[in-house]
Amino acid sequence: MAGELNFSNEIFSNFAFYTCVVLLKLLFLGLLTTVKRITKGVFANPEDCKRFGDPDKLKPIFNDAGVERVRRNHLNDLENIPAFIFAGLLYVLTGPDPSTALWHFRVFAAARILHTLVYQLELQPWRAIMHVVCLTVTMSMLVQVLMVAKY
Amino acid sequence: MAGELNFSNEIFSNFAFYTCVVLLKLLFLGLLTTVKRITKGVFANPEDCKRFGDPDKLKPIFNDAGVERVRRNHLNDLENIPAFIFAGLLYVLTGPDPSTALWHFRVFAAARILHTLVYQLELQPWRAIMHVVCLTVTMSMLVQVLMVAKY
Amino acid sequence: MAGELNFSNEIFSNFAFYTCVVLLKLLFLGLLTTVKRITKGVFANPEDCKRFGDPDKLKPIFNDAGVERVRRNHLNDLENIPAFIFAGLLYVLTGPDPSTALWHFRVFAAARILHTLVYQLELQPWRAIMHVVCLTVTMSMLVQVLMVAKY
Fold it and tell me: Is B124 in Cβ contact with A16 (below 8 Å)?
């Protein structure tokens, strides 16, 4: 059962749970962008201005600080979350120690959620620290996969 | 056979088919960007202007409305398609009802293709509706995975 | 054993190795962005300027040519690397010829690394050629999956 993609494999089941958590966090940033755009009346497409915006502000705006902050946060997630999930899937298949694996997933998910929080609250060096924590977890799993994989 | 990543598992086979469809749609937007850039002579890198552009327009341009629209569309795909595929892969492994699963995949793929179409045709509120449909499918699969996964 | 996601399946093991290689390359671009931002003092967030920047240059800068080039390169990776990994995972499960599969992975990984190199060295038409090579590999795998998958 070790190293199988099956919910009766505890490691895989934990991986699936934390993958869902970080994907929900990723999708949440899309919703936050929409909420910020509508409440501020800041849109990137003329048809959005017409449909959802104030009739007096009908031009796209590309430099609103609040909206751009959420967009940078979202892009940072895209740069890191898929890499974590791919690395994690391969890592599960190496049949790692269950407790070590669980802590990899837990630490990444917690650091990624805190990363979003401190990004929106404009807190440095916390954002940098959370970013390094996430990178370290992904790198650790990649190295462990490379030690098992043939080239 | 239920819940296995194997082409003789009908649910997985359907998932693989619709994954290919949405990935081809994603890659198509990359090609559309290239076509728009070359036909309009709008490039982001000086070396592209020199190699592919009009000798009279040798400066990068970052604010062409047509090119930027395709780029926003492409980024939106990156925000949603990998999340769907990850969620779908885990969902297949929960061993769902084949017909329910098939409709999840079909609705997402159809809504994502229509999303691109109405994005390029500048049609609102259709783009918002297609976006919500895609999000709902991904969320539905994530919730079903969370109900099976251990934490 | 053919078509199984197991490190004793040689095709999967090769796939896992090259997936790690391209993910490390993707994460490397994130580090390169950070290095360029810090050495040039070019940041996107006011709190980053305050924490890591020169006290005389406290405003975010969004148009530094060097930083923007790395960022475009990074986004291009996001548009292509996850698609390759998803396509590759499904392709492994079709049970392809081991040698053909290995060359798909090798060519993609090599072309993607060279793509980054020539992007940063501003070399055209080499960047376009590497991009087409990567796309061709991903498309080839997607077509082979579509030939096996049910719809």
Answer: no
Helix boundaries (H) for A1-151: 10-40, 46-52, 65-93, 98-120, 126-148
| Whether ipTM exceeds 0.85 | yes
Q: Is A151 helix (H, G, I), strand (E, B) or coil?
A: coil
Contacts of C88 (CB under 8 A, 6+ apart): C15, C18, C19, C104, C105, C141
**How far is residue C68's CA from residue C88's CA, in Å, rounded to a whole number?**
30
Chain C residue with minimal CA distance to B103?
C151
* A123 neighbourhood in chain C, CB within 8 Å: 47
pLDDT tens for C9-34 read 999 999 999 999 999 999 999 999 99
Q: Residue C8 is which amino acid?
A: S
What's the gap between Cα C20 and its chain centre?
10
From B50's Cα to the closest Cα of chain C, the distance in A is 9
Instruction: Quote the strand ranges of chain B, DSSP E.
Output: none
| Cβ–Cβ < 8 Å for B13, C146 | no
Check CB contact under 8 Å for A142 and C24. Answer: yes
Element (H, E) at B55: none
What tens digit of pLDDT does each residue of B4-27 get? 899 999 999 999 999 999 999 999
Cβ-nearest to C10 among A83, A123, A150: A150
Taking the whole predicted model, whether its pTM rises above 0.90 is answered as: yes
